[in-house]
Amino acid sequence: xxxxxxxxxxxxxxxxxxxxxxxxxxxxxxxxxxxxxxxxxxxxxxxxxxxxxxxxxxxxxxxxxxxxxxxxxxxxxxxxxxxxxxxxxxxxxxxxxxxxxxxxxxxxxxxxxxxxxxxxxxxxxxxxxxxxxxxxxxxxxxxxxxxxxxxxxxxxxxxxxxxxxxxxxxxxxxxxx
Length: 177
Fold this sequence. Notes:
By secondary structure, the protein is of the alpha+beta class. It has helices spanning 14-25, 42-47, 79-96, 110-116, 122-129, 133-136, 138-148, 151-156, 160-173; strands at residues 5-9, 31-34, 56-59, 62-65. The protein contains nine helices and four strands, in the order E-H-E-H-E-E-H-H-H-H-H-H-H. It has a four-stranded mixed sheet. A hairpin with a 2-residue loop joins strand 3 and strand 4 (62-65). Helix 1 (14-25) packs antiparallel against helix 4 (110-116).
């Protein structure tokens, strides 16, 4: 019997993007099932009954799932604090990137997979924080462009404008706009 791998996910989930990139990099064939956060599938509820969250990876009927808490843009007053923490973190990452094309010098690896998914959220942060990622973090943007040339990354990351639309819809639903 062949291995069956199913990813229950949302195309805008940074955590799910990581899983997709890793699966593609490893050459693992999988079925991607898009989940609607407002109308969760029976399969998601069965495979992740406690947290009912995505991403949930199913391998031969057994699940591995995410348990991340809420996001910083979800309540009033947290946006600037989130942007400040983001700046602190990305200043460190900018320094650590070094002169190689990836965080592990010449090799695209787990650090790159973990971080590249955040680039889809840069547009949202730029809009709320009123700054330019490229002006503030040029090495990170150059790195992100290199990563986007990899098939696994290009196939896994959504358009940043889709992320922005999602955030605006979510904020409106929470009465924040």
